[in-house]
Amino acid sequence: MVIALATLLHILILVYWLGGDLGAFYSSFFLVDPARGVAERALALKILNAVDMAPGTALILALPTGLTLACATSWLLLPPAALVAVWIGHLVWLALAWVVHLRHGGGAIVRRADTVIRWAMLALLAVMGGLGAARLVALPLFIALKMLLLAACVAAGLLVRHQLVPMIPAIRMMLTSGPTPATDVVIADAIARARVVVLAIWVLVLGAAFLGLWKPQ
């Protein structure tokens, strides 16, 4: 039963990550469509932001659910206390991410804390995954490679955030004063760059899923 539940939780990460990303990806086309009215584009933005929390949540829970499944199937032998600590840490991170989302930024301190955690997780996953892939620490190869792919996903998510920054004042101007050719160009360019990175994330996530099925040692 434990293995079945852990497997289900980890599969749901894939389902909600790709499903949510697809919904946000599709909504972005309505957001940048100059033929749509402001109300329609505002609704598209609202849907995009809401749906995007599915992959955002999946990214944060990918590691604890993956480690739980690895321990349940004896691929890893972690002390129960360590696994509990991982879950607590990631649930705290998840709460911070949701505060940032629900409060449209969450305040400078919360937003900065979320960003620091993402950079720390990127470094930790990259180091552990790299050491495991090089056989310098005792990790199954597929788990080490999945850590590297997850690190790449975290990095890609940070890149998307950076790419969308120029869009924020243009969005505000569109919603308050109406769209202009200049704001439309800024929004469309930012979304176009972000879409490329999102497509790369899909490849990374599918690669991680394939490794989980293949399990090279």
Q: What this model shows, in words?
A:
This protein is mostly helical and 217 residues long. The chain has one domain. 84% of the residues lie in helices and 0% in strands. The longest helix has 34 residues, at 181-214. The chain is elongated and about 60 Å long.
Q: What oligomeric state do these chains adopt? A: single chain
Please mark out the parts with pLDDT under 50 across 5 or more consecutive residues, or reply none: none
SSE order in H/E notation?
A: HHHHHHHH
Number of strands: 0
- How many angstroms separate the termini? 25 Å
For the residues shown, what is the average pLDDT? 95
Notable characteristics:
mainly alpha; 8 helices; single chain; 217 residues
Give a concise summary:
With 217 residues, this protein is mostly helical.
Which secondary structure elements does this structure contain, and how are they paired or packed?
Elements: H1 2-31, H2 38-51, H3 53-72, H4 80-102, H5 108-133, H6 141-164, H7 167-177, H8 181-214
Helix pairs in contact: 1-2, 1-3, 1-8, 3-4, 3-6, 4-5, 5-6, 6-8, 7-8
